[in-house]
């Protein structure tokens, strides 16, 4: 069976305008009646005439197109009026879109994706269209990514962000926008849009672009933007991975109606441990608490989290209307490369590895806070080699 494309659909509908008149009903008249009978059965089942609309089922929209055509052709109305016990040919309950001849070809094709025609107008089956097949072939036709080492750190980071809750996955919306630097999940793999080629216009006057897409298994594909959109939409597990945009997490002072969420605190240890003593000026504990910071540190010398030593408060930042856990994960992700690697023993002799101590100068922490305030922090990480925040390479 051949795939149903727009030309075939139009040809099929145009047949309604040319019923052959002979002694009895012609084959084309029988097809018209059979097609109308399907619409009547739809009305009986759903309680309303088929309607146009993006939220409607593909077959309902096909029936709506067919009904529009039948109502527009006097020959069809004459043939079907005696059979129209539901008043479909003259009723006003069909929410009509533009006439069939004026409909956007590409839009109609998009809505009919998944429907296939047959020799009989009454027979509709759910099969893959040519567009779907092309999209699947393009996604599947991958080659080895020769410069994958450039992109590998991006995949490592995005996986860490997902685990930490800094990024989330969202269902892909139909034909949603795709931009350079975005991550998606398609075919069970994380895909990164590394390049977006020059935009061009398709034969249906729709905009499209050629993409270079890198996958986390070290392969890549040269795929059309609309093919990736279709593949994501058709994939039940297809997802968009959100950007870790924190937005304005802090405020200099609370505004009316703001809900206090907690405090970011920066502490310095008074421990005499050789590693701590040697790096005291740049070694800081960065945490988030919903309570009073002073009370939080009152028993620091008994808590391995505080290196079993007293601490002093170096800086605090109040925050409002924000998820404390997510914020703390974001801060720790930024400074992950400077995390202190030290093992101490608790009061019972058990080894403990504190995770919230970082070898970062205070002025860099202040800078990070400012970037979190204005929402630009998502493009930076801390580089201990230069003791500064640096932009994340997007290749």
UniProtKB/TrEMBL annotation:
The annotated regions of Basic and acidic residues compositional bias extend over 7-28
**Which residue stretches belong to region Disordered?**
1-28
Recorded protein name is T5orf172 domain-containing protein
SMART domains according to UniProt: T5orf172
InterPro entries per the record? Phage_T5_Orf172_DNA-bd
Q: Which residues form the Bacteriophage T5 Orf172 DNA-binding domain?
A: 278-372
Instruction: Write down the superkingdom of origin.
Output: Bacteria
């Amino acid at each position: 069976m051949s795939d149903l494309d727009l030309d075939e659909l139009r040809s099929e509908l145009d047949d309604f305008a040319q019923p052959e008149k002979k002694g009895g009903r012609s084959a084309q008249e029988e097809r018209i009646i059979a097609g109308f009978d399907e619409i009547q059965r739809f009305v009986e089942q759903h309680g309303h005439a088929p309607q146009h609309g993006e939220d409607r089922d593909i077959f309902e929209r096909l029936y709506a197109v067919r009904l529009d055509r039948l109502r527009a052709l006097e020959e069809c109305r004459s043939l079907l009026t005696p059979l129209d016990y539901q008043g479909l040919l003259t009723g006003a309950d069909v929410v009509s879109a533009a006439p069939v001849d004026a409909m956007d070809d590409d839009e109609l094709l998009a809505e009919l994706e998944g429907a296939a025609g047959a020799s009989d107008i009454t027979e509709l089956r759910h099969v893959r269209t040519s567009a779907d097949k092309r999209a699947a072939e393009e996604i599947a036709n991958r080659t080895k990514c020769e410069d994958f080492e450039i992109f590998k750190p991006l995949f490592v980071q995005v996986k860490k962000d997902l685990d930490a809750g800094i990024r989330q996955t969202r269902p892909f919306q139909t034909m949603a926008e795709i931009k350079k630097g975005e991550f998606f999940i398609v075919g069970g793999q994380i895909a990164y849009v590394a390049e977006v080629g020059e935009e061009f216009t398709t034969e249906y006057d729709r905009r499209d672009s050629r993409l270079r897409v890198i996958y986390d298994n070290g392969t890549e594909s040269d795929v059309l933007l609309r093919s990736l959109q279709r593949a994501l939409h058709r994939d039940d597990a297809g997802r968009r991975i959100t950007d870790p945009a924190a937005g304005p997490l802090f405020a200099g002072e609370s505004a009316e109606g703001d809900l206090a969420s907690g405090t970011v605190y920066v502490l310095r240890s008074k421990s005499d441990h050789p590693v701590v003593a040697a790096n005291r000026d740049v070694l800081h504990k960065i945490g988030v608490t919903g309570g009073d910071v002073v009370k939080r540190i009152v028993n620091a010398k008994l808590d391995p989290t505080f290196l079993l030593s007293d601490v002093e408060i170096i800086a605090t930042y109040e925050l409002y209307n924000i998820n404390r856990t997510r914020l703390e994960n974001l801060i720790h992700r930024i400074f992950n490369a400077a995390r202190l690697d030290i093992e101490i023993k608790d009061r019972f002799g058990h080894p403990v590895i504190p995770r919230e101590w970082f070898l970062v100068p205070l002025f860099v922490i202040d800078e990070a806070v400012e970037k979190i305030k204005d929402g630009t922090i998502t493009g930076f990480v801390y580089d201990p080699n230069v003791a500064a925040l640096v932009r994340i390479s997007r290749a």
